[in-house]
Design brief:
about 190 residues; Rossmann fold
Length: about 190
């Protein structure tokens, strides 16, 4: 069989892909901001994250006292310094603090965008990831979350919900296998 025959046979036998699933048109039941916050905290706890509720004024003092050496990537100078850092310098980051754009109550996920990340790898190679999120920036579910994401001009975005973990066939749970070993979410607006 010649190459042309093989290619013609492949073209004639294209796989049929199923249609995309229908997106539900009905609205999900609304939940209050208080219910969203409670569900968000419960979801984060289930995912293995630590939750701290603070006022905006308390965050710096809390971070200094409880998370020593944390690099605050909401600080433009630190963000700029690490934007061009070599991998060996990035690999030494033990604690990194980022601002999340919004959180999802149903699964405790926090959305990060690349305009807040000096390098995309940092949330995944740090040992302790700290995400700061305004309590007013919560949505109830992923349907609402996707409506808030605007991909135009966005190079990278990621939902993070809990520290990295995996379990093998012997059911041995390992933290930090594919990302941070610990996740602390600071909810501002107490």
């Amino acid at each position: 069989m010649s190459k042309a025959d093989i290619l013609q046979s492949i073209s004639a036998h294209k796989a049929a892909f199923p249609a995309a699933p229908e997106i539900p048109s009905e609205e999900l039941p609304a939940i209050s901001p208080e219910q969203q916050l409670d569900l968000f905290k419960k979801s984060l706890t289930t995912a293995g994250a630590e939750i701290v509720e603070l006022s905006e004024k308390e965050i710096d003092d809390y971070t200094a006292a409880n998370l020593p050496g944390a690099l605050d990537f909401t600080n433009p100078e630190i963000k700029e310094e690490y934007a061009v850092a070599a991998l060996d310098k990035l690999n030494k980051i033990e604690r990194a603090l980022f601002a999340g754009r919004f959180g999802v109550a149903e699964n405790g996920a926090v959305w990060l965008e690349d305009n807040n990340l000096p390098q995309r790898i940092i949330p995944f190679i740090t040992q302790h990831l700290i995400l700061k999120l305004d309590a007013k920036n919560l949505c109830a579910n992923m349907q609402e979350a996707y409506k808030q994401i605007h991909l135009n001009g966005l190079g990278f975005g990621v939902f993070i919900s809990g520290p990295s973990k995996t379990a093998d066939i012997e059911q041995s749970l390992v933290y930090g296998a594919h990302g941070a070993k610990e996740l602390t979410v600071i909810i501002a607006g107490k």
